[in-house]
Specification:
about 210 residues
């Protein structure tokens, strides 16, 4: 394989990926309108990075789109995917590590993973297959230094388990991190639709 490089994407490149790739990598109910991404991008709060072969006109082989709020020192990993061409080669872990270590600006990263313990029967043909898929995704992040928290979220009735990556030089841990700061950041990320977003401990989500 040719030498790989990571570079920041402009809005037009992100728009092409949005219309050409996202539907293959994410369920339709997890894909927000591009107008919201564009709005955050133009405010300087949203950035996309792509992995490419080091040659002219190379296609995007993986992408990581981040939404950040510096006032709370948090970044949301909004979309992360590796294309079929690179899967099974370890490049997904390598790319994620680069994003965490070089492109997150020393901020802690919030990762949403569909909760394997909260699957609605109308969401999957096979509940067991869906649960295994979610557990594999969670395992991928865990082996790459991401920590599991006790926080859960519901976004447009999609249940998420909240995971967090802390920079290596951070004094925060899964035990000591500021939950209220994370919650403020999370609600800010979804400030356009606050009535459809809930975050808290499992029992808090269940009661709301």
């Amino acid at each position: 394989m040719e030498k790989m490089l990571i570079r920041q994407q402009n809005l037009e490149e992100m728009k092409e990926i949005y219309h050409g790739m996202l539907a293959r990598h994410f369920p339709s109910d997890e894909i927000k309108p591009f107008s919201r991404i564009k709005e955050s991008y133009e405010k300087g709060e949203y950035v996309g990075y792509g992995l490419y072969e080091d040659r002219p006109d190379a296609e995007c082989l993986a992408y990581a789109w981040l939404c950040r709020i510096s006032s709370e020192n948090w970044i949301l990993l909004d979309y992360y995917a590796v294309t079929e061409k690179l899967r099974g080669q370890g490049m997904g872990s390598w790319f994620l590590k680069q994003i965490f270590e070089k492109y997150s600006r020393g901020m802690s990263v919030i990762i949403e993973v569909e909760d394997p313990d909260r699957i609605r029967e109308d969401q999957a043909i096979s509940l067991e297959e869906e649960r295994e898929k979610r557990l594999r995704r969670m395992s991928f992040y865990l082996k790459n230094g991401v920590k599991q928290t006790e926080l859960r979220a519901s976004v447009f009735q999609i249940p998420y388990s909240i995971m967090v990556y802390f920079p290596q030089d951070s004094e925060q841990s899964v035990v000591s991190f500021d939950r209220e700061s994370l919650k403020r950041a999370y609600y800010y990320f979804y400030s356009r639709v606050p009535w459809n977003v809930k975050i808290g401990e499992m029992h808090e989500i269940e009661q709301q």
